[in-house]
What does this fold into?
Amino acid sequence: RRERPATRVDTTPREIAQVVVRMLRRRDHLLNSCCGALSTLRQLLCDLIDIKAATAVISTSLQKTDLRIEKAQLRRQSDIWTLLAAAIKYTPEKSTKEEKSSNIPRDGWNNLDQEEVKLDTKESDKYIQENDLLVSAIERRAKLMDTIL
It folds into this structure.
């Protein structure tokens, strides 16, 4: 049976056009999503570059701080030894005059066991008392701050 030309519908070009339109829409959708992903990646890359620069600055700052702390600790240690030397004064007393004139130890041994050490605790007591006053003042201020807050 044959169809008449007026009722006959040739759908092949229409179907092809519909498929092409669907594929173009799908392509546009995929391009938009890829563009969004690339934009996000670009922003992340910029953030990472900023973080890298900040990390370098922080690293150099930490190295400088480490050196400063080390110097401060050495100064503190030196100050402690100075305070210790000032707080503990000793005078070696020797039993005979010839030991005073002779600095050479007898029998190859040192003569430290023959010395008597006298300690002067006045200086250290003064530092301890000063430290106790400072601690009590800090505690009073802390209690005052607690009552205020």
